[in-house]
Here is the input.
Amino acid sequence: MNFSPLDIPTYGLVSLGGVTIGLSLVAWDFTHWWTGHKKRLSFKALARLVPQFLCLSYGALLILSAGGIIGGIADWSLWGTNTAGNVVLVYGLGASTPNVTRASHLALTPGGHAAVIVITVVIVAVCSRRGFRWDFVRQILAGISLGLASSIAGAVGLVVAPSVSWAGDYVTGLL
Here is the structure.
């Protein structure tokens, strides 16, 4: 257990149950998208996936944050998905739920943290203009659940974190 500058504990561990919940949330929205479009490879149909992917990436960034209030909320959400997934796997199927956290953690740079704040403001602005979006919440939770995974499920965190850190450092003048 680590502590952030505000003494909010951060755990940074994901179990097989958490990954299962994250993949299930992605599967839920993907299935709704798949069954809702006859021409799935059209630009219009594919464009509907972009906000989902962006929210998934944002969730992965949140769990890679150093801590603080936003990082604490992400960590609490990871704990919730881990617990829910563990309950389903252990009591529903009799399976075990090992730790599947990546061996080396990615960390956002100070510019990356600044970018996360800007992205948070953009998401709040979009939601305040268009109303509450459960599809955004599901994909953000999925990103939080998958961001630390050591498998291909955690690839979003491996790709997005360095890119956002570099862009944030570049824009804020830290490079």
